């Protein structure tokens, strides 16, 4: 499944991030690609806000990885709804924000614990510059390609999910 | 008071000995075993290799350091970086410090790496820190304004909302094809450039808070190259764009620092972190303080203390030790995510 959206402002990017947040159950990997300034971090900021995370989400380029707790009262809307319908609730408890920009060797990310986060059904992991660490990206990852648009405020996002 | 400092939070295994007295610190000796060559061979920092190298380097470094005196100096405390950083690397320093503290029966101090940068300007400096003090910590991963009410009493008053200042240097250098690390490359190119050649934004300058944002500047540089079809291979164009970019970064850092300095009525200003080596930033800060706040004492680190080193860890350790702020060797732990403020 492939879909493309044109985003005209930072506000629209946040709205797009809210839509993505609603579709997440926990356990997903978001493989973000696109050149410098294309909006990968801006998207994750929007995603974090949509998930109720209050922390300031800084660019993880230097730190490589930063994880934020997704609190109980801050669950995205779909989870409380599904629990009302009596379905088992996924314990979606963390958003991990990773950046492979500086990475020269994929093991760097594994030794700081990325493996555990990727296999944790309660964690959503968003990886910037995912194309630099192809071996680490799970096959069922949601791929999101960010491109610069016609002007400084416009971005193109192409989402590819495995059918 | 003699303090032994140990720092292994990332690439460098470093040990140092300082003398601290009456709020002043002086370097006695500093040794660094760099892993740059090893990392160049493996193409980047590989944490297990980094940790293994720290393990093999640390004890010889300590014995070389102490072996330089015919009579071993009496050490009053051991200071070690406990975070933030790579866990496997931090652990080597922490375990070594713990073992030495127990073996020598010397008190132990746990130091935050950022706190080391914060005190880096006090090394070999005659001026002492007067409170309230304001520190600007600028590096590849940090851009923070920290208010100090006293030694060890920190309050975060401003920070970057997205990219760090050092990151802005690195990423714009990449766009201009100037290579890595970007800070020195942009600074060098800027020497022969016109800072007014290109109009770039001064992010967050219109907001009243003391926060920073550099991701918009990063994209503005990209769009300038693109929209004007700049041939960045042309050294003059790269020089002009570098000068314009550096000035934009420096302007924001200086303006927010001065505003915070006025608001909190500070007595001392401290600069620290990798970007503190940037001459344009040093000159601009000195000029603005002289003009707007001549009464404020400025402490700027010697350039050798702007990169990771153990002298600054020992220096921070001295101020803790002076307050008897020690930690039991049985309790100290490496904390890779330790946030100072
Ligand atoms: N519609 C938009 N969507 C996203 N960002 C936008 C938009 N319009 C403007 N921007 C600005 O563009 C910049 C995007 O930078 P950001 O750091 O998010 O990119 P990135 O892809 O993470 O870059 P890097 O590769 O350096 O990590 C931000 O300053 C953001 O405010
Ligand atoms: Mg980013």
What would you note in describing this structure?
The complex is a heterodimer of chains A (163) and B (341). Helix content of chain A is 27%, strand content 25%. Chain A has 163 residues and is an alpha/beta fold. Chain A has a 7-stranded mixed sheet. The model of chain A is unreliable at 75-89 (pLDDT under 50). Chain A has a single domain (2-74, 87-160), classed as Rossmann fold. In chain A, helix 1 crosses helix 2 (40-50). Chain A has helices spanning 10-23, 40-50, 77-84, 107-111, 114-119, and strands at 2-7, 29-33, 65-69, 94-99, 123-128, 142-148, 155-160. Chain A contains 5 helices and 7 strands. With 341 residues, chain B is α/β, with parallel strands linked by helices. Chain B folds into 2 domains: 2-124 and 304-322, Nucleotidyltransferase, domain 5 (2-Layer Sandwich), CATH 3.30.420; 133-301, 2-Layer Sandwich (Nucleotidyltransferase, domain 5). Chain B is 41% helix and 19% strand. Chain B has helices spanning 36-42, 47-67, 87-104, 113-119, 165-175, 182-190, 215-227, 235-263, 279-292, 311-322, and strands at 2-7, 13-21, 24-33, 77-83, 108-112, 133-138, 143-150, 153-159, 268-272, 297-299. A 5-stranded mixed sheet of chain B has the order 3-2-1-4-5, with helices on both faces. A 5-stranded mixed sheet of chain B has the order 8-7-6-9-10, with helices on both faces. In chain B, a hairpin with a 4-residue loop joins strand 6 (133-138) and strand 7 (143-150). In chain B, helix 6 (182-190) crosses helix 8 (235-263). In chain B, 52% of the residues are buried. The chains are: A alpha/beta (163), B alpha/beta (341). Adenosine-5'-triphosphate sits between chains A (7, 9-10, 13, 34, 36-42, 59, 61, 128, 146, 153, 155) and B (162, 171, 215-216, 219).
């Amino acid at each position: 499944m492939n879909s493309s959206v044109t985003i005209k402002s930072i506000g629209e990017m946040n709205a797009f991030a809210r839509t993505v947040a609603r579709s997440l159950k926990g356990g997903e990997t978001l493989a973000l690609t696109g050149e410098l300034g294309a909006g990968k971090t801006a998207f994750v900021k929007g995603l974090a806000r949509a998930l109720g995370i209050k922390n300031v989400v800084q660019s993880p380029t230097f730190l490589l990885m930063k994880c934020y707790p997704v609190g109980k009262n801050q669950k995205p809307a779909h989870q409380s709804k599904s629990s009302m319908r009596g379905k088992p609730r996924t314990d979606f408890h963390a958003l991990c924000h990773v950046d492979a920009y500086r990475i020269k060797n994929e093991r760097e990310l594994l030794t700081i614990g990325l493996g555990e986060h990727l296999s944790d059904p309660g964690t959503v992991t968003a990886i910037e510059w995912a194309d630099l660490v192809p071996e680490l990206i799970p096959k069922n990852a949601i791929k999101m390609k960010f491109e610069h648009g016609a002007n400084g405020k416009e971005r193109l996002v192409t989402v590819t999910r495995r059918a | 008071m003699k303090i032994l400092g140990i720092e292994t939070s990332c690439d460098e295994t470093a040990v140092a000995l300082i003398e601290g007295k009456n709020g002043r610190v002086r370097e006695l000796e500093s040794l660094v075993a760099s892993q740059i060559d090893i990392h160049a061979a493996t193409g980047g920092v590989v944490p297990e290799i980094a940790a293994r190298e720290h393990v093999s380097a640390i004890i010889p470094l300590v014995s070389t350091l102490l072996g330089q005196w015919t009579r071993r100096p009496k050490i009053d405390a051991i200071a070690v970086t406990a975070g933030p950083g790579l866990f496997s690397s931090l652990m080597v320093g922490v375990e070594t410090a713990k073992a030495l503290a127990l073996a020598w029966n010397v008190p132990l101090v746990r130091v935050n790496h950022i706190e080391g940068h914060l005190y880096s300007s006090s090394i070999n400096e005659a001026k002492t820190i007067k409170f309230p003090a304001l520190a600007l910590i600028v590096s590849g991963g940090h851009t923070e304004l920290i208010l100090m009410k006293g030694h060890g009493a920190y309050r975060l008053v401003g920070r970057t909302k997205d990219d760090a200042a050092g990151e802005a240097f690195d990423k714009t250098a990449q766009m201009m094809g100037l290579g890595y690390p970007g800070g020195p490359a942009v600074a060098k190119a800027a020497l022969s450039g016109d800072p007014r050649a290109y109009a770039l934004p001064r992010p967050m300058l219109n907001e009243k808070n003391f926060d920073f944002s550099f991701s918009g500047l990063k994209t503005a540089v990209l769009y300038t190259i693109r929209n004007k079809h700049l041939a960045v291979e042309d050294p003059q164009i790269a020089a002009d764009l570098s000068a314009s970019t550096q000035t934009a970064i420096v302007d924001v850092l200086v303006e927010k620092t001065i505003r915070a300095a006025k608001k909190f009525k500070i007595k001392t200003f401290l600069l620290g972190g990798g970007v503190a080596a940037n001459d344009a930033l040093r000159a601009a800060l000195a000029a603005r303080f002289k003009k707007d706040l001549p009464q404020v004492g400025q402490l700027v680190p010697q350039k050798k203390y702007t990169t990771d080193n153990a002298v600054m860890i020992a220096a921070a350790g001295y101020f803790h030790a002076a307050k008897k702020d020690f930690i039991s060797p049985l309790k100290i732990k490496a904390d890779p995510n330790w946030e100072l403020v």
